[in-house]
Specification:
single chain, 153 residues, alpha/beta, six-stranded mixed β-sheet, two-stranded parallel sheet, 8 strands
Length: 153
């Protein structure tokens, strides 16, 4: 059974009708998950074990609403999803990430501070079609529907 990580309740990140129609487990802010009254809801805690993953929800600021970024340990992979936060503090506190999924505006904020994201790979997401992201030559900026095969030995 798949797991849906919801960062916050804005419509571009959470669609109640889609969440109701699928059979995945759901972890997210309380103001979002309370709209879904069924057993698929995973109780938000500082560490959540589900489907062989360790998920660390991290409260991060965004537009004055309840918002979480997530660090996910999935087997040997360390992943970090920023959501929509524009505060790099939690991201920059992470270490030894395999992949960091970062918005263009958070990337620019990190870059303007001269900081470094401790990740082997940076994926820029939540970007506009054909949006240029400067100073990130090694980043992957996927197009809609694009996938990448990866392996970790």
């Amino acid at each position: 059974q798949a797991v849906l990580l919801i960062t916050h309740g804005h419509l571009d990140h959470f669609d109640l009708t889609v969440a109701r129609d699928k059979f995945w487990r759901i972890l997210g802010p309380r103001n979002v998950t309370r709209k879904l009254t069924d057993a698929r809801i995973i109780v938000l805690d500082s560490l959540v074990y589900v489907q062989g993953m360790r998920i660390y929800p991290i409260a991060t600021p965004h537009s004055g609403i309840e918002h979480y970024s997530y660090r996910v340990q999935w087997g040997r992979w360390q992943l970090y999803f920023v959501g929509d936060t524009d505060d790099p503090k939690a991201l920059l506190a992470q270490s030894d990430l395999d992949y960091a999924f970062v918005t263009p505006w958070l990337w620019q904020k990190v870059r303007s501070r001269g900081a470094r994201i401790d990740a082997h790979h940076i994926v820029i997401y939540h970007h506009k079609t054909n949006e240029r992201v400067t100073g990130c030559a090694d980043c992957w900026i996927p197009k809609q529907g694009e996938t990448r095969n990866t392996s970790k030995n």
